[in-house]
Amino acid sequence: MWHSAATVGLLLLAPIVIGAQAPAPAVGLGFGIDTTIAEVHDIVALTRAYLANPDSTARRRGLWSVGTKLDARFGDLVTNAYQGFNVTILAVTPAFPGDSVYAVKLLHANSPKTGEPVSALALERLFAVRASGSPFGWQLAGALPRLTRDWARRNAGRITFWYAPGQIQSPSKARETATFVDSVGRLFSVRLPEHIDAYVTASTDEAWRTMGLDFFPDGSGPETGFGGRSIPRAGIVLIGDPRVGEDYLHEFVHVVLSPTLNSRTAAFNEGVAVWLGGHDGHPVTEMYTLLHKYQLAHPDVTIAQVLGGNSPGGSEASNAMYTTDAVIVEAIFHRTGIPGLLRFANVTGSATEVLARLHEFIGPTDTRGIDGWWRAETERLAKAH
Ligand SMILES: [Zn+2]
What we know:
Elements: E1 27-29, H1 38-51, H2 69-74, E2 87-94, E3 101-110, E4 119-130, E5 138-141, H3 144-147, E6 152-156, E7 159-163, H4 171-188, E8 196-200, H5 204-210, E9 213-215, E10 227-231, E11 236-240, H6 249-261, H7 266-277, H8 284-297, H9 303-307, H10 315-345, H11 351-357, H12 359-362, H13 369-384
Parallel strand pairs: 1-2, 7-8, 8-11
Antiparallel strand pairs: 2-3, 3-4, 4-5, 4-9, 6-7, 10-11
The chain binds zinc ion (ZN).
């Protein structure tokens, strides 16, 4: 899960939220799609029906398969592809030898003006499975269970780690993560997910591909390409950074806490995840030091700018945003423990609204104001660890 933001450029930072899927305003056909062929005709009709309403009712309406456990329980896991972009159906071809499973490739993209290049959000791959008796004779299905069927796997506590071909297993990291997950559940007294599936892959790209997203934006530059993602409602962690491997703890915090605490703010969700699980494979202590350095390099930047995503420095600004969430969470914990954090979890609203209410949780901030507090608290944490 990520900080949410309204602009496409930051979509990669948006959490995958159930129920937020928007219909495609227009659906078109790519070169080579010949709907005079019976299978193609029926699968295109099914896909159009789904894209008009790409939400969790698809199973009830007979459009989505219930043939695997993941499909039956959660339906479409790749809800971040449905953000109201137009869709072009690019390909309808057999996915495996035989005639009962097809791959359907979808381009989610808008063309701002005629003659301009498209803005592409996602290249998605769904499967269509023959299902006689269903409304279209076929049902859509997710990529994940079909693409990982033959992957090596290892159980540790309530977690199953699935390894993409070529990934090295670390039994000790797997055990450490299983213990960590239980300890996070105990700390917040939440009911742990029955089971967590964690997919260990070579890159964010490979992790998304496994989910059926052959392309999804991931910013650009040196800090991109590797990282973790999670789909808490389905108990799924995606690890796309071999330098970290099984103990990409940050995403496991989301999977343990989000289903129960369901906080609406990034300050709580990301703050707790960074506080307990670090950020991008770095422990929180390193992040506090980096935030302190960032503050020294930017003496005029305010906490409101950082949390609003309006501070300078590219990936450093993004790190500063996540770490500031952790500073807030650790300060609340320091003052009022888990009960204080549980109250903070109920706060709603924008970053500005959260900041306006912060004094209720951290106490008055004396004459230095909230920015003085932010800088002093960060310095204290950077030096305390
Ligand atoms: Zn996160």
